[in-house]
C-alpha cells in the first residue's frame, strides 16, 4: 500500500483496505484503493482525511519567471462504483474468495473475507456508502503554496484531501474508493531514447517497489529534510539565488507545519487488515518478486475473470494475480515496516515475430543459394528458384506485407488457441 492516510480532524482507524494495482507497459500504473474508515471518536465528526502518495500529479514549467502548473496523471473518487457488483474492480474480490453483499442493508456494503484458521467464521467488514458519495471531493491539498508544490514535485510526492459531503459520525464506518493513474511509477526509468531501443530489441524491463504506509511517511520526512538541507547549503551571495533558496526553506517549513506536524499531532493511523492484488497488466511477466517485513504472500492466483468483463484480465498475458496481505499495522512502530520488490518485462511480441521472420529469411536464402550452387537437377533448381522469388517478393519488394503478417498473426493465434483447446477436450471426452 504505497500511500499514507491521516485526518486533520483527529485520529482515524482503517478497518480494511484493499489495493489493486494494474501495471502498464512503460512504467505506468492504475491503482484502485478501497478503504473502510472508522471514526473512533464518540463525539467528534470526521469531515475529511488526507492522503500522501509517492508520485507526481501536479507538474510545473517556468514561463517568463512565472510558474505554470498542469496535471500529470489522473486521480478521482469512485466510491459510488462500490455498489456495482459487475464493476471491474469489484470482480477482483472473487479471485481471493471474498463475498460482497450490497442488498441486505440499504446504503451498506458488507464484505466477507475468508478466515484461514476457521472457514466457518469469516472476517466481516461492514460500512456505509451514502447516496451522495459521488459528490465527495477528492482534490490536491489546497493548503499549500505554489513553491510547496514545486518542492513536492522535486521529491516526487503529492498530498490529497478527501472531503465528505455527509460527515462520518462518532463510531461511524464509511467505505471509500480512490483511483490513481500515475504515468511513471517504476524506479530508475530509462531515458525515452533508450526505452525505444530496449523495446525494439525486446528487452524493456521496469523495476517496482511497493512500500508500507509507515515506510512512506518516514521517506517523506527524510526527503523533505534533505531537500531543505540542500537548499540551505546551496545559498550564495547572489541576491537572486539567495531569494530562491529562501523560498525553498520557507516552503519546507510550511509543508512541515501543514502536514508533518499534523501527523505527529494525531498520531499514527492504525490499519486492521490489508490486501494487495498485483496484476501484470500490460507486462508479459513479473520476475524477482519478493517482500520483507510485515507482509505475507498468499500465493499466485489464476485470473479466471472473463476477458470481456474486466480491464484487469484483458491485458494480462500471463493471466495471473499476485496476492499479498498484512494486518494489525500501526501498533509496533518499526516492526510494521514492509516492502515488495519485483521486475516487470514488457515484451514486444510483434517485433520478436518479425525478427524471427527475418532470421528465417536469411537462413532459407543462404540455404537455397548453397543448394543452387552445387545441384545439377533442373527440377530442383526450378523449385528452389521459385521459393527464392517468393522470399524476395515478401521481404525485399513488399516488406509491408511482412509487417502486416506480424501484426495479424498474433491475434489470429490467440483466437485459434481456445478453439484448439475445445477440439482437444472433445476428443479426450470421446475416447477416454
Task: Give an overview in words.
- The protein has 432 residues and is α+β, with helices and mostly antiparallel strands.
- It has 2 domains: 4-347, no CATH class; 352-431, no CATH class.
- It contains 9 helices and 19 strands.
- The protein has helices spanning 88-91, 146-154, 192-200, 213-233, 239-266, 311-314, 349-374, 378-397, 399-431; strands spanning 4-6, 13-23, 29-38, 46-53, 58-63, 66-71, 74-77, 99-101, 108-113, 123-128, 137-140, 158-168, 173-182, 204-211, 270-279, 285-293, 296-302, 320-329, 338-346.
- It has a 7-stranded mixed β-sheet, with no helix packed on it. A 4-stranded antiparallel β-sheet has the order 1-4-12-11.
- Strand 8 and strand 9 form a beta hairpin.
- The two termini are 49 Å apart.
- The model is unreliable at 308-318 (pLDDT under 50).
Amino acid at each position: 500500500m504505497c500511500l499514507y492516510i491521516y485526518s486533520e480532524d483527529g485520529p482515524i482507524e482503517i478497518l480494511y483496505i484493499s489495493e489493486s494495482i494494474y501495471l502498464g507497459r512503460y512504467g505506468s500504473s492504475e491503482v484502485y484503493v478501497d478503504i473502510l474508515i472508522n471514526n473512533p471518536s464518540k463525539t467528534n465528526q470526521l469531515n475529511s482525511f488526507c492522503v500522501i502518495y509517492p508520485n507526481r500529479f501536479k507538474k510545473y514549467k517556468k514561463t517568463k519567471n512565472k510558474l505554470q502548473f498542469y496535471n500529470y496523471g489522473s486521480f478521482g473518487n469512485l466510491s459510488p462504483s462500490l455498489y456495482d457488483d459487475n464493476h471491474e474492480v469489484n470482480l477482483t474480490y472473487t479471485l481471493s474468495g471474498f463475498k460482497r453483499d450490497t442488498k441486505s442493508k440499504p446504503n451498506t456494503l458488507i464484505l466477507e473475507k475468508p478466515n484461514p484458521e476457521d472457514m466457518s467464521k469469516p472476517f466481516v467488514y461492514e460500512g456505509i456508502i451514502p447516496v451522495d458519495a459521488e459528490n465527495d471531493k477528492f482534490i490536491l491539498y489546497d493548503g499549500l503554496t505554489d513553491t510547496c508544490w514545486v518542492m513536492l514535485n522535486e521529491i516526487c510526492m503529492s498530498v490529497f484531501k478527501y472531503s465528505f459531503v455527509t460527515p462520518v459520525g462518532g463510531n461511524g464506518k464509511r467505505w471509500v474508493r480512490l483511483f490513481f493513474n500515475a504515468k511513471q511509477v517504476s524506479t530508475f526509468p530509462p531515458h525515452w531514447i533508450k526505452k525505444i531501443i530496449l523495446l525494439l530489441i525486446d528487452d524493456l524491463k521496469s523495476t517496482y517497489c511497493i512500500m508500507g504506509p509507515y515506510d512512506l511517511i518516514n521517506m517523506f520526512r527524510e526527503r523533505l529534510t534533505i531537500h531543505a538541507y540542500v537548499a540551505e547549503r546551496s545559498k550564495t551571495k547572489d541576491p537572486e539565488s539567495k531569494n530562491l533558496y529562501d523560498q525553498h526553506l520557507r516552503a519546507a517549513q510550511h509543508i512541515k507545519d501543514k502536514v508533518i506536524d499534523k501527523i505527529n499531532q494525531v498520531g499514527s493511523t492504525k490499519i486492521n487488515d490489508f490486501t494487495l492484488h498485483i496484476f501484470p497488466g500490460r507486462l508479459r511477466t513479473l520476475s524477482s518478486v519478493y517482500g520483507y517485513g510485515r507482509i505475507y504472500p498468499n500465493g499466485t492466483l489464476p485470473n479466471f475473470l472473463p476477458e470481456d468483463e474486466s480491464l484487469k484480465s484483458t491485458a494480462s498475458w500471463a493471466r495471473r494475480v499476485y496476492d499479498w496481505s498484512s494486518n494489525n499495522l500501526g501498533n509496533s512502530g518499526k516492526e510494521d515496516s514492509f516492502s515488495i520488490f519485483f521486475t516487470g518485462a514488457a515484451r514486444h511480441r510483434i517485433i520478436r515475430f518479425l525478427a524471427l521472420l527475418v532470421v528465417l529469411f536469411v537462413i532459407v536464402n543462404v540455404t537455397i543459394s548453397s543448394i543452387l550452387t552445387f545441384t545439377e537437377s533442373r527440377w530442383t533448381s526450378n523449385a528452389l528458384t521459385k521459393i527464392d522469388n517468393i522470399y524476395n517478393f515478401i521481404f525485399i519488394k513488399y516488406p509491408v506485407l511482412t509487417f502486416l503478417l506480424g501484426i495479424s498473426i498474433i491475434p489470429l493465434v490467440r483466437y485459434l488457441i481456445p478453439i484448439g483447446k475445445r477440439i482437444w477436450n472433445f476428443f479426450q471426452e470421446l475416447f477416454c
